[in-house]
Amino acid sequence: MIPEAREVHLSRKxxxxxxxxxxxxxxxxxxxxxxxxxLLAADGRSTRSIAKEVxxxxxxxxxxxxxxxxxxxxxxxxxxxxxKQPIYTKTTDKRILKLLDKPPPQGFAxxxxxxxxxxxxxxxxxxxxxxxxxxxxxxxARKSWCESNDPNFTAKAxxxxxxxxxxxxxxxxxxxDEKPSIQAxxxxxxxxxxxxxxxxxxxxxxxxxxxxxxxxxxxxVATGKIIATHSKRRRRVExxxxxxAHPNVQFHFTPTSASWLNQVEVWFSILQGQSxxxxxxxxxxxxxxxxxxxxxxxNDRAEPFVWTKKKVxxxxxxxxxxxxx
Length: 325
Description:
single chain, two-stranded antiparallel sheet, 11 helices
């Protein structure tokens, strides 16, 4: 049953808009039909005759006659329709975050996307990954930290840094430490040709042990040169023998858990990267000779390290760590 036809009265402004809509080649078909329906209705045409001319059902003509009569041109626009209700909500996000605060399942080192989805039970793993990415939560990357609990951290750190930037007059400042248990490992070395034609240097996974050596090293702050010696053990006796302590020697100690303040630690990192990584030794003596040769070569071009950090202070991780298990 068709509702009673509503009279349509067009203003000059609305008529111009609707006629322009009908003439425009880019007007959508749905908008074109609605404009023609209203224009014909304003000319006094019946609902059925308009439906026949426009090519729509009479109920469609009746709908747009009523919509224009009640709301004007705005009534010819589509009403907003409710979209599909989201499957996952903020409640889901809170569940994921709450689960991350808990230990992973027994036997696992950390949470993964599939483990989270399995524990939640009703959340797809793809949504879990999207949520983690949006919140910049990385379950794979690991970072360690070290907080010094030395109550005298500030005083000790200032003391050590002071020796770097303003050493005492007529004094030699040496940074001393040890690199223990350097292994003499024998591995097969050579080039490996890949199926795509590339050739890479490499070593075998299997190795043979030939013992270990402990390296005592002292870095002279003013020149950057290294004094080093090897020892089978790392006792107090071996350390004092390396120091050959003079009565005027004064020791300055880095704070607890702050060996990074010791410049010789930087050199140990250089030694590992430039001399020890990826090498092979058939005997402990060969390892020691190899390190000695590197020390001699390093000293030929040694330069002092430049201390650039202006302030050294104890900074807590409060507010930066999410959880502490």
